[in-house]
Amino acid sequence: MCGICGYVSKKNITLEQLKVMNDTMYHRGPDDSGEEIYDMHGGYSVGFAQRRLSILDLSALGHQPMHSANKRVSVVYNGEIYNFQELKQELSDYRFYSNCDTEVIIAAYLKWGIECVHKFNGMFAIAIYDRKSDEIYLVRDRIGKKPLYYWQQNDGIVFASELKPIMAFPGFPKEIRRGVLSRYLYQQYINAPDTIFKNVYKLEPGAILRFKAGEISTWKYWDIKQVYQAQVSNPINSYEEAKEGLKELLKKSVSARMISDVPLGAFLSGGYDSSLVTAIAQEHSDMPVKTFSIGFHEEKYNEAKYAKAVADYLGTNHTELYIDEKEMFDLVDSIPKYYDEPFADSSQIATMLVSGLARKHVTVALSGDGGDEFFCGYNVYENVRQAQKLDMLGAMVYDVCHFPILKQLRMEERLPFKVRVIAGNRNKETQTQFGAGNYIVKAMAMVKKSDTDNNNLAGVDAPVPVHYQIESKYGVKDWQIRRMLLDMDTYLPGDILCKVDRASMKYSLESRCPILDKDVMEFSYRIPHGFKYKDGDKKHILKDIAYDYIPKELLERPKVGFGVPLDKWLRGPLKEQLLNYSSYDYLDKQGIFDAGYVSDMIGSYIKTGDAGPATGANYSKLAWSFFVFQQWYKAYCGN
Fold first, then answer.
1. HSE of 345 in the Cβ direction (CA atoms, 13 Å)?
2. 3-class SS at 58?
3. Deepest of 35, 523, 555, 607, by most Cβ within 10 A of its Cβ?
């Protein structure tokens, strides 16, 4: 687990400037660093740099940039290739000098070319320079566990694990891409390939970028739609076969992620996913696994007692930390430093706290991420199922309300909130993403219109729709399955995995996700949906496996969850900051938001607060997204 950065450019960049870029990611790799510059044909120079968090082969043999013995290939890399030992056996004709997976990447590339990526099972962001073919490759893992950004210039590219090194590249303009802001305000994160800056992109999960002779091309080597369609055509219709097959793959996945030359533990919330991962880890360990959870003094939110009960049953070496609101609040100012792009999922705070706790004892932590998206765990999937049942009725209500006379009487506005949502959900491309229309309208109205907007041009600052208008591409009639696939493409990598990566790397902690193993993900598509969602029981097959390890009574309970008290904070200790950020003069000078609209909206919100879920006017989230953006803007763009 590390951080990488580099460039291909005709500019004269010094080694010291490359080192400055690299050191902005010190927290990602405090154990070692390396920076090198190479000549490339066509007047280009190539800079490769890496900050290292030593996990495998702690010796100097793991130093990066790393080169092939014949000096043809140079690599910088962030992540873990969990099957590197098996690949090493396939590559026995290559003389290895180290016991780290980076050298396996080099040997695999020399034998199979860029197609070697199909051999890798792990989480990774890789940069490869091939002197023979005079090409640069950037590669990101299948589900987007590891981040990889790139800035596309006229004369090259600059790439990095985070935005900070790109911002430190000489001459980077920091031009805000206003077109993504409405989606950010609504979704609370910016999904690949978009970023907050013009001409800067996230390499999409499962994608490869090639730079050759000044030309850039990108393609997908692993695409959720294609993989799903291929696997679902070969279903496992026997429940017992599906259960045993999934169980064996999970055991193999957890076992592979326990290979480490540094202390390893597991996050344990007491929920199904983390409990199952921990149970399997304990089964594969000859000593108590170190587990970590945080608790809250507010009894109605506290799940730590459930995590402790699971830990006691499994016999882990459990550590818990009870936190109060002040400890959470104290982390607010650090958000822009470690989330160097606007990111407003407030659960990042709890994730930072549990990561900080774990890092005091271990360098690697297993997590249960991915269980909800791949096995139908979120409550929204129940809502989506109900919405599909009511869709025909909603269409009828919509048609009636849009009769000319009734439309003039604005009948739709008089309907109960939930009825309005179902009736208004008519876009086939976004049917599983229904929500409060007024919330969307506000998110769009907050952003100042640009000339690009007015001229309806498809420029770099053209407005991006708030919803992901891509649902038809999956070719799935069942809304529940469609929403799960959409979340795998968007919410999982863009929000969940980004949150965990930045929160854990804040403390130089590596997080590993066994459920997001390549073989587990692909096998999950072969499992009939009725095994995942059975008679209203979400995540049924995964729960059934968990019960093989842990008594049902320790796991079966309503999920509590903990929400950061945004409304209380924004209208209390953060009130003055929020008012300053939303003052007309500040916004007018900034030139990003509609100064009059936002100033009035935030002022009104501070007076009235959230109006309650029945009306859909839960505006604290919108105000929090705005606040976090302004925090980030102040930290990186001045003002």
1. 22
2. coil
3. 35
Q: Which residues of 39-62 are buried (b: 16+ CB within 10 A; e: fewer)?
A: ebeeebbbbbbbbbbbbbbeeeeb
Give dist(CA 148, CA 451) in Å, integer.
30
Position 164 pLDDT exceeds 90:
yes
Query: What does the pLDDT look like over 350-379, one tens digit per residue?
Result: 999 999 999 999 999 999 999 999 999 999
- C-beta separation of 159 from 199 below 8 A: no
The answer to whether residues 355 and 506 touch, using CB atoms and an 8 Å cutoff, is yes
**pLDDT one-digit tens code per residue, 233-245:** 999 999 999 999 9
> Using an 8 Å Cβ cutoff, are 6 and 49 in contact?
yes
Q: Residue 79's beta-bridge partner residues?
A: 124
Contact yes or no for 445/183 (Cβ under 8 A) = no
- Which pLDDT score, from 0 to 100, does residue 405 have? 63
Task: Check residue 112 and give left, alpha or beta (phi > 0: left; psi -120 to 50: alpha).
Answer: alpha
Mean pLDDT of the chain: 91
* Tokens coding 103: 């050298």
Find out whether the peptide bond into 193 is cis, omega within 30 degrees of 0. yes
Q: Is the sign of the CA dihedral 182, 187, 188, 194 positive or negative?
A: negative
Domain boundaries of the chain, sorted by first residue: 2-222, 226-376+482-555
> What are the pLDDT digits (tens) for 253-269?
999 999 887 789 999 99
Q: Three-state SS string across 183-212, please?
A: HHHHHCCCCCCCCCECCEEECCCCEEEEEE
Handedness of CA 388, 483, 180, 221 (dihedral sign): negative
Convert 446-469 into a string of H (helix), E (strand) and C (coil).
Answer: CECCCHHHHHCCCCCCCCCCCCCC
Domain 2-222 class? alpha beta
Task: Name the percent of the chain lying above pLDDT 90.
Answer: 76
Phi-psi region of 422 (alpha: psi -120 to 50; beta: other; left: phi over 0): alpha
**What phi and psi values does residue 50 have, to the nearest 5 degrees?**
-150, 140
For range 599-627, the mean pLDDT: 80
Structure tokens at 65: 């940039």
Strand, coil or helix: 548: coil
**Average pLDDT rounded to a whole number, residues 294-316:** 87
| Half-sphere exposure at residue 131, Cβ-oriented, CA atoms within 13 angstroms | 14
CA dist 206 and 417 (Å) reads 39
Tell me how far the alpha carbon of residue 92 is from its chain's centroid: 36
Query: Known catalytic residue: 2?
Result: yes
Give residue-wise pLDDT tens across range 583-608. 999 999 999 999 999 999 999 999 88
DSSP, res 281: H
Dihedral sign, CA of 484, 485, 487, 493?
positive
- Percent of the chain scored above 70 by pLDDT? 92
Q: What would the mean pLDDT of 393-405 be, rounded to a whole number?
A: 72
Give the residues across from 447 on adjacent strands: 593
- Asked whether 163 and 185 are in contact (CB, 8 A), the reply is no
Look-up of token digits 């490759």: 137
Residue 377 host element (H or E) = none
Q: How does strand 122-130 pair with strand 135-140?
A: antiparallel
Predicted confidence band of residue 58 (pLDDT cuts 50, 70, 90): low
Fold designation for 226-376+482-555: Rossmann fold (3.40.50)
Helix (H, G, I), strand (E, B) or coil at 107: helix
Q: Identify whether the C-beta of residue 444 lies closer than 8 Å to the C-beta of residue 182.
A: yes
Query: Kind of pairing, strands 122-130 and 73-81?
Result: antiparallel
CB within 8 A of 429, min separation 6: which ones? 467, 469, 470, 471, 472
Q: Indicate the pairing of strand 73-81 with strand 66-67.
A: antiparallel
Among residues 459, 463, 434, the alpha carbon closest in space to that of 447 is found at 463
